[in-house]
């Protein structure tokens, strides 16, 4: 998917919501456990109920890998279902990969070609030759961790490197990577005030923003500091939506929560 | 496996060699492609031919994930074969994972419990709460990326943070993590002279050292600067051993290359 197609979808739906599919057998409604593939059954129900309210889905691969082969099968079925039933939706494999050159190419092929995801999250620690192999894929997007929304972000990401926080160094350096137009960035909502300076470094790129809601970030603040001319934001919510209820009406409850966020987004898009 | 069991094995075998199982369908001998599971067939032959010369095996998970479900099956069969046939060998899932707390716990369970690996490589960028969930597992080892052997290592890892390179900051900070005795570190051999200062920060921990041979590092220098009282080194070689030959005698050729490194290690252990 091109960036423009994503932007068009945002305007059409008046939403820049991404729903995180962190699907956990211990948290999904008990009646689904009788299904042949409870994880896929849950995901399918959530997707069918919410696809008109969001523009992206983001399965966190850890939740699938935790169940070994079965989990990978559920992930494959989920992305196949998204690509066949809702091809307009942007798909993110939240895998936080990164390795040396030829190994990164392996990961890129696995997620961009085998599974046909539109994008993949990547950790920056290993630098240029660990990131550039992902950027070679046309109309695929590499979402680099810049500033994450967890407490440990302050261990290294906000440490000063030559008078500049490490995450800003990551933003600056990554701009020099080949095909950097295929980059997006993870920027946690819990530090919304940081977005102003981040936008000075990368005015044009899309930001994937976790941490709105459950982790305490404010949607309004994120938009005030982070929105650009092409919107440029994907706001992720996982648990707050998919685990809104654990009864038989879980999918409707999820849709209600998604609708609330979508309504706020519609207002923010109109008033900008 | 406890660290002491690993040390005992090193002394018994007079080797601290780790063999990287970066198994690639495009590089393995053509006659294996007729097997039901060519990747496992290749790994099994390599393991059977080399297990007495090394103390550890390290499959890089990217090579398996690249083949989707089939690849994961090959990885499962490989670790099951190692655990059942050669339980004395230390096993490393080279997965370079790392995520926020509850997600890291998922990865820990997947690799330490489901697959029963002894250890897992982890990227440090997300800090404390992304690493500590791995450290809770008794007799399991978390191998943190500190200084990698690729060119991109100079993008961020060697940048100065408060007058100290980032990788040293990672070493220092990680020492304060809960259960930090379960940490080991990745330190590339291409920067062997850096090992002296690294040993001042973490005198006791094991180092997993890639980049000897193919990437230009010298085994002798690594040992001079990096060896501690308990040896404290695992030297990894992947392509130089497993792809020594692509004919029917590939396993014997791999064993010959492993034997050469093992002989050098034996000498270095005797002369220290």
UniProtKB/TrEMBL annotation, chains A, B:
One of its GO terms (molecular function) is orotidine-5'-phosphate decarboxylase activity. Its EC number is 4.1.1.23. Keywords: Decarboxylase, Lyase, Pyrimidine biosynthesis. One of its GO terms (biological process) is 'de novo' UMP biosynthetic process. It is an enzyme of class 4 (lyase). InterPro entries: Aldolase_TIM, OMPdecase_type-2, OMPdeCOase_dom, RibuloseP-bd_barrel. Pathway: Pyrimidine metabolism; UMP biosynthesis via de novo pathway; UMP from orotate: step 2/2. It catalyses: orotidine 5'-phosphate + H(+) = UMP + CO2. NCBIfam families: pyrF_sub2. Belongs to the OMP decarboxylase family. Type 2 subfamily. HAMAP family: OMPdecase_type2 (MF_01215). This is Orotidine 5'-phosphate decarboxylase. It comes from Pseudozobellia thermophila.
């Amino acid at each position: 998917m091109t960036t423009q197609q994503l932007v068009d979808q945002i305007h059409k739906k008046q939403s820049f919501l991404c729903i995180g599919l962190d699907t956990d057998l211990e948290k999904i409604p008990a009646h689904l456990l009788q299904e042949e593939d409870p994880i896929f059954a849950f995901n399918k129900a959530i997707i069918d109920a919410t696809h008109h309210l969001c523009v992206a889905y983001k399965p966190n691969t850890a939740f699938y890998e935790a169940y070994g082969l079965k989990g990978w099968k559920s992930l494959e079925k989920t992305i196949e279902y998204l690509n066949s039933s809702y091809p307009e939706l942007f798909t993110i494999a939240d895998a936080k990969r990164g390795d040396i050159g030829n190994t990164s190419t392996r990961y890129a092929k696995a997620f961009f070609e085998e599974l046909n995801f539109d994008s993949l999250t990547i950790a920056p620690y290993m630098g240029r030759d660990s990131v550039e192999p992902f950027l070679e894929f046309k109309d695929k997007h590499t979402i680099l961790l810049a500033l994450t929304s967890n407490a440990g972000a302050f261990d290294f990401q906000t440490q000063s490197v030559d008078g500049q926080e490490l995450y800003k160094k990551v933003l600056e350096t990554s701009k020099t990577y080949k095909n950097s137009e295929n980059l997006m960035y993870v920027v946690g909502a819990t530090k919304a005030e940081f977005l102003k300076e981040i936008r000075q470094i990368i005015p044009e790129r899309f930001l994937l923003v976790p941490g709105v809601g459950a982790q305490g970030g404010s949607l309004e603040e994120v938009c005030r500091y982070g929105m650009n001319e092409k919107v440029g934001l994907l706001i992720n919510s996982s648990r707050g939506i998919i685990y809104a209820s654990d009864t038989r009406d879980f999918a409707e409850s999820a849709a209600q929560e998604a609708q609330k966020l979508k309504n706020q987004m519609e207002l923010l898009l109109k008033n900008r």
